[in-house]
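Aim 2, interim progress: modelling of the zinc ion-bound target.
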Amino acid sequence: MTPNARLWAVTVTAPRILMKILSIETSCDETALAIVECSGGLKKPQFKVVKNVVSSQIELHRPWGGVVPSLAKREHIANLPKLFKDLELRTKDLEQIDAIAVTVGPGLEPALWAGIEFAKELSKKLKKPLLGANHMEGHMYSILLDQKPGVVQFPAVGLVVSGGHTILVKMDSYAKWKNLGETRDDAAGEAFDKVARLLGLPYPGGPEISKIAVKGDAKAIALPRPMLNSKDYEFSFSGLKTAILYYLRDNKKVSKADLAASFQQAVMDVLVKKTMRAAREFSVQTVFVCGGVAANKELRRQLASECEKWGIAFIAPDNKYNTDNGAMIAAAAYLGKLRKKKYSFKADATMSL
Ligand code: KG4
Ligand code: ZN
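Predicted structure of the complex, ligand included:
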């Protein structure tokens, strides 16, 4: 191949980088920044994560058994400049950034404001445009991070499960989706956190419960499967938490491992059954799961196994992109821009998907 022919080959095969985004996420208890190269159109978007730094506040909030908004804000303000330094951006790197992206909702209002104010200042200082992003869209699009283009075949059904949300969506494209149903009370992650507290396990409860559940028997304790057979795609997890409260009250000798495993399986049964019912009803080609609870190995394993049975492709993001991170915010901002979404740079605690 002549040198010129080689250059041509590289030019036509390598995806053209359309936007390099520096993204900021502070909606809850993780301060997170990322640099992501975003390319492609709405049909085949592609995201290459160049840097992804996260500072977790878990230890700070642990004594309170949950996230304290005012403390979270103070920590975000202290951590943002430190994380920005951790990105080790030289003048040349800063020049190559095309836009700054920030989560504007949903989340804890004081925490969101910390990121928004920091992003505004940075945008002014670096003279780069500012893009807004919806945190839940970030979770949804996290399935695209570091993936090949065309990874999702439509229609698709996605289970978005985090500490604040449990939503089942039907997606016809990256720009068009429908919320099929969500939780009427506690989110799946919230249920893990509350049950962990009842078991005397530290916050956040999801990783703690799944760790001890490995040693337990998931069939040992009969627990309800709320709304398992309801005809809609709604969820409810608060009754499950109450059932565990009564179980602990009425039983002296309790195996925490058995209770954790039985609780985890009760949640899985509902999540997996409803997701697969939607997958079949809409004859989808892909099922995906995302959000903090998607870090749960059992949930991924059981969904993957059901999908295999039905010949449906299954996708879950790399584990570092399940819990809150900055990279997913760059993806949401980029696709939001392609979808011509406009955000005002004000914290919107209840923004929906
Ligand atoms: O997405 P995320 O980081 O933050 C929100 O946007 O809420 O999700 C955090 C939630 C917490 O409730 C946490 O307990 C749960 O995700 N989680 C898990 C696991 N890892 C984190 N739940 C079940 N199993 C896990 N392995
Ligand atoms: Zn989240």
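Residues 212 and 257 are 5 Å apart (CA to CA). The first helix runs from residue 3 to 13.
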